[in-house]
Design brief:
ATP-binding, ATP binding, nucleotide-binding, single chain, 246 residues, Rossmann fold, ATP hydrolysis activity, ABC_transporter-like_ATP-bd
Length: 246
Amino acid sequence: MAVLELANISKHFGAIQAVNDVSFSLEAGEVVGLMGDNGAGKSTLVKMIAGNFRPSHGTMQLDGQDLILHKPVEARQRGIEIVHQDLALCNNLTAAANVFLGREIRRGFGPLRILDYKTMYRRAGEIFRELKSETRPRDLVKQMSGGQRQAVAIARTMLAEAKLVLMDEPTAAISVRQVAEVLALIRQLRDRGIAVILISHRMPDVFSVADRVIVMRRGRKVADKQIAASSPEEVTGLITGAIEQV
């Protein structure tokens, strides 16, 4: 059974058709690269999956159950996590505090309950080790590299036991070494059976880590191919319109 299944999803804002009749499915442990030029509809599509927008038409299912979302918190409750391009981290807090933000562990009873920092540091450390990341629970986010920040954002999705992670340009504006770290983190998610939708403009990253590539142009899906059956040249042609559809 597919983790996520979209059937004829469309979204319009007044007279503007942002997404038009898009269908695809996603299996557990599968990484799908979502590519297209600016304005192709990628972000709108992902925001519908994340609960920011309601589809104007079509249906979504998660684990075979209808997925009807009114707000992002409902998506998170169903096991859908999104890693935004700006990561939405608190720079003045530690890695562990960011991982547990909004999900803090407390001990004690009634009004005397206090934050259980020891448990949160320990669990965050376990997750970072599982991710094979050099990030340490007590490190301040403002002192971290781009790759370490991505590790913190991805650790939050693992704490939530996500079924599906949506990643928006995770390798934009970071160094080559940090890109390698982020791609390794994505592989870790895949190996844990978590499905990933990777929005990216970086062709080498998609072809390095994705199993499939979906290309959108002007709100429509123009390709859905196994990476092994495509090429960067073909995908570039599909994005620009030099190749109409495959």
